[in-house]
């Protein structure tokens, strides 16, 4: 039987763009994205310029698919009931309390979604893990859904998502690979083939990789860990460069020209941000510890520790400069998103560096082309809720600006923390300031400090 109706639980950075692309490529399939967040669903159904996820190319797809074969809804029951295939793209943050707090993945949203599927399903379903999950999560999902009392058959697949924010649409159009893990049973392999048929509409068959379900779950964590490890490697070397007079961009280029190493993911930065690298590596560390692999756990933990070190190092570089030249503690931060071309600021280095600067008594002006003032203040507030280290009137020390032009004249020191293309024009706007370019995107001779 052909797949006619798909549901995706979770209308976030993964659920929204991936389902938009499936709807575009498979016009005969109805795709419904459901979420418990009413405001988010309203925003997906609202004006095209205010979608909850900013991704280049996304709004063009939404324009042609929305309310044709792509729907955003809060009616979870009806959508689950009517679908043949259910993707789970819910968030899997780091656990905040209980066993494994601060390390393990919090699976509460996955468990809740599984319970909803068990409760509302009236016919057989293929359930697809799209979220990034600890290896062997499919076992937990299976136990929950199999508790339904109607004799319904559920097949669980792992189909991790490898898109990067800011390039999500092109990543989905031209994936390096699509990974589908299944039980190696007749019905498991059949379910994997059904999912494969969907991707085959636009992904060459040889790029669709099928594996056992545990390999698929673990490959996702391992991919993120390997990517993040390269960033921590280059960032750790940037610290040595600044002691020795070596130039990290030159070192990075020299390393990357070895075809065995390759040039990608060797760009020095204020540390990796984003919702996944840190939480996925911590999850990997926890899994290693759980299986008694303490040395392996320690190895991967180093990747996160170096990332924290890089953020602290940048705060120190700034502080030392201000002390050296006896400057008034006032600074402009350019960039709040964790990378360019996204409105996502989760785990952005800007949050941590700004927080440290506020603690040191700085007044901080902030500008980002895509992250709203409300979100910036919410991010600072959230970190202080956890740490409680700021003076209660810290908000009077933050000013958020709406344009690049308006922020540049507000103080003498400007710090670039996100590599937005717009910031490349800063050299032309005025020259009455000093630039700290911690993304190393501007010409060396126009900046005062770089990594
Ligand atoms: P997100 O927070 O943007 O979206 C998750 C959505 O799920 C939220 O809108 C939330 O309200 C919704 N949700 C939670 N529980 C629900 C429930 N019971 N019913 C309905 N909706 C529910 O998260 P995201 O960035 O899209 O990430 C989702 C998963 O994909 C995570 O596991 C993440 O690690 C993984 N992932 C993310 C990216 C990325 O670039 N963001 C890339 C690859 C994989
Ligand atoms: C990352 C992975 O690249 C995706 O394959 C994966 O699907 C996703 O995580 C996920 O699981 O969430 P994402 O975090 O969206 O994607 O973006 P990246 O391009 O990987 O950038 C992550 C962070 O690393 C950013 O802060 C970026 O600035 C930083 N980075 C990246 C560097 O500091 N140096 C680099 O050379 C590359």
Description:
By secondary structure, the protein is an alpha/beta fold. Helices cover about 45% and strands about 15% of the residues. The chain has 16 helices and 14 strands. It has helices at about 15-25, 40-45, 60-65, 75-80, 110-120, 135-145, 170-175, 185-200, 215-245, 250-255, 275-290, 295-325, 350-360, 375-385, 405-410, 425-430; strands spanning about 5-10, 30-35, 70-75, 85-90, 125-130, 155-160, 180, 210, 330-335, 365, 400, 415, 435, 450. The strands form two sheets. An eight-stranded mixed sheet has the order 3-2-1-4-5-6-7-8, with helices on both faces. β4 (about 85-90), α5 and β5 form a beta-alpha-beta unit. The radius of gyration is 23 Å and the shape is globular. The model has no long low-confidence stretch (mean pLDDT about 95). Bound molecules: nicotinamide-adenine-dinucleotide (NAD) and uridine-5'-diphosphate-glucuronic acid.
Strand content: 5-15%
Give the tally of β-strands.
14
> What is the subunit arrangement here?
single chain
What are the low-pLDDT stretches, counting only 5+ consecutive residues below 50?
A: none
């Amino acid at each position: 039987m052909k797949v006619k109706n798909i549901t995706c639980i979770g209308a976030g950075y993964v659920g929204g763009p991936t389902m938009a692309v499936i709807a575009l490529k498979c016009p005969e399939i109805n795709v419904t994205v459901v979420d418990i967040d009413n405001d988010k669903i309203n925003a997906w159904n609202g004006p095209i310029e205010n979608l909850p996820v900013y991704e280049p190319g996304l709004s063009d797809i939404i324009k042609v698919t929305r309310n044709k074969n792509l729907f955003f809804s809060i009616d979870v029951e009806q959508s689950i009931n009517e679908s043949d295939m259910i993707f789970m793209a819910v968030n899997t943050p780091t656990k905040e309390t209980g066993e494994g707090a601060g390390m393990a993945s919090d699976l509460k949203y996955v468990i809740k979604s599984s319970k909803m599927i068990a409760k509302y399903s009236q016919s057989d379903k293929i359930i697809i893990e799209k979220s990034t999950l600890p290896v062997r999560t499919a076992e937990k999902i299976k136990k929950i859904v199999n508790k339904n009392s109607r004799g319904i058959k559920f097949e669980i697949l792992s189909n991790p998502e490898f898109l990067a924010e800011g390039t999500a649409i092109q990543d989905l159009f031209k994936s390096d690979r699509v990974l589908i893990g299944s039980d190696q049973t007749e019905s498991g392999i059949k379910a994997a083939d059904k999912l494969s048929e969907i991707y085959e509409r636009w992904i060459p068959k040889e790029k669709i990789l099928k594996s056992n379900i545990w390999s698929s779950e673990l490959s996702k964590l391992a991919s993120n860990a390997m990517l993040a490890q390269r960033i921590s490697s280059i960032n750790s070397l940037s610290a040595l460069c600044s002691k020795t007079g070596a130039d990290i961009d030159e070192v990075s280029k020299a390393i990357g020209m070895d075809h065995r190493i390759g040039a990608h993911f060797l760009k020095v930065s204020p540390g990796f941000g984003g919702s996944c690298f840190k939480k996925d590596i911590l999850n990997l560390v926890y899994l290693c510890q759980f299986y008694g692999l303490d040395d392996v756990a320690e190895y991967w933990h180093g990747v996160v520790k170096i990332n924290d070190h890089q953020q602290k190092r940048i705060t120190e570089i700034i502080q030392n400069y201000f002390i050296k030249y006896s400057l008034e503690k006032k600074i402009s931060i350019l960039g709040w998103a964790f990378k360019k071309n996204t409105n996502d600021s989760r785990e952005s280095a800007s949050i941590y560096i700004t927080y440290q600067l506020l603690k040191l008594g700085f007044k901080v002006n902030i500008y980002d082309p895509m992250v709203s003032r409300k979100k910036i203040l919410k991010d600072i507030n959230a970190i202080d809720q956890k740490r409680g280290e700021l003076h209660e009137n810290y908000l009077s020390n933050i000013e958020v600006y709406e344009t690049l032009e308006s922020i540049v004249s507000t103080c003498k020191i400007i710090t670039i923390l996100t590599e937005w293309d717009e910031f490349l024009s800063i050299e032309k706007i005025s020259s009455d300031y000093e630039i700290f370019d911690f993304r190393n995107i501007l010409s060396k001779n126009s900046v005062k400090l770089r990594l």
